[in-house]
Amino acid sequence: MFTGIVEEKGTVKYVSLAGISGKIAIKARKVMEGAKIGDSIAVNGVCLTVVSMQSDGFTADVMAETIRRTSLGQCQPGDHVNLERAMAADGRFGGHIVAGHIDGTGTVRSVVPEGNAIWVTIGAPKEILRYIVEKGSIAIDGISLTVAYVDDSAFKVSVIPHTGEETTLLSKKTGDIVNLENDIVGKYVEKLMGLGPAGPRSSGEAAESSSGQQEQGLTMEYLRDMGF
């Protein structure tokens, strides 16, 4: 598990893809302190396992699902990436719960200064936007950020100078792709309460209304069945 507090910016040494999977090598310093083979390190928000270590970084396998869901396959040698080690049990929880499991990608629409902060607008598909709420949390390329605005096609975050300096976000340009991970709490609530598209219920089936049509989600009948 991660918190979305980026520890350092690493540099891509190479990405070697053979078909639909491959390896990525990252030049890093801070995240290598105490690291060992088998450890998890988030690279632009993607949880990767260290499979080999070098004096100046590490190498990780990249599977097909990672290539499909994230922007890692587009990385080029010399690109900077956000790095974070898995959270230590005695560490401070500075961000929010970040699993390192990317839900999909978004596209940078604009980067606009306002005072000492920068507004970044990200366009995203509806299946990702459904879990984003104003003043909730979102991980963008592994950075824990607070959502300041959301509509049916995009959301906005306001980035302070420190975050801009310590991460890669403000180096992005209009049209660039970023990795997005929704707050996992919302997804669990949706699943357990039967609020999602699948509408799971205690019996595994959707409720049927008086008109004979199936209803999905949170209903009075469902609450009675659950003892409320």
Notes on the protein architecture:
This protein is mainly beta and 228 residues long. It has helices spanning 64-69, 126-129, 161-166, 184-193, 220-225; strands spanning 8-18, 21-27, 40-43, 46-54, 57-62, 80-85, 104-114, 117-123, 137-140, 143-150, 154-159, 177-182, 207-208, 214-215. The chain has five helices and 14 strands. The protein is globular, with a radius of gyration of 20 Å. Residues 198-215 have low confidence and may be disordered. A six-stranded antiparallel barrel has the order 1-2-5-4-3-6. A six-stranded antiparallel barrel has the order 7-8-11-10-9-12. A two-stranded antiparallel sheet has the order 13-14. The protein starts with 7 loop residues before the first strand and ends with a helix. The protein has three domains: 8-85, Elongation Factor Tu (Ef-tu), domain 3 (Beta Barrel), CATH 2.40.30; 104-183, Beta Barrel (Elongation Factor Tu (Ef-tu), domain 3); 194-225, no CATH class.
What would you say about this model in short?
It contains 5 helices and 14 strands. The protein is mostly beta strands and 228 residues long.
Task: Please supply descriptive tags for the structure shown above.
228 residues; mainly beta; Elongation Factor Tu (Ef-tu), domain 3; 3 domains; 6-stranded antiparallel β-barrel; 5 helices; 14 strands; 14% helix; globular
Number of strands: 14
* Quaternary structure annotation: single chain
- CATH top-level class of the largest domain: Mainly Beta
What global shape is seen?
globular
Give the SSE order as H and E letters. Answer: EEEEEHEEEHEEEHEHEEH
* Strands ordered across the widest β-sheet: 1-2-5-4-3-6
Supply the number of helical segments.
5
- Tell me roughly what share of residues is in helical segments: 10-25%
- Give me the secondary-structure category: mainly beta
Describe the largest sheet.
6 strands, antiparallel, barrel
Q: How confident overall, as mean pLDDT?
A: 89
Question: In terms of per-residue confidence, which ranges show pLDDT below 50 for 5 or more consecutive residues?
Answer: 198-215
Distance from N terminus to C terminus (CA atoms, Å) equals 34 Å
Strand content: 35-45%
Total separate domains: 3
Q: What would you report as the Rg, rounded to the nearest angstrom?
A: 20 Å
The CATH architecture designation of the largest domain is Beta Barrel
The CATH topology of the largest domain is Elongation Factor Tu (Ef-tu), domain 3
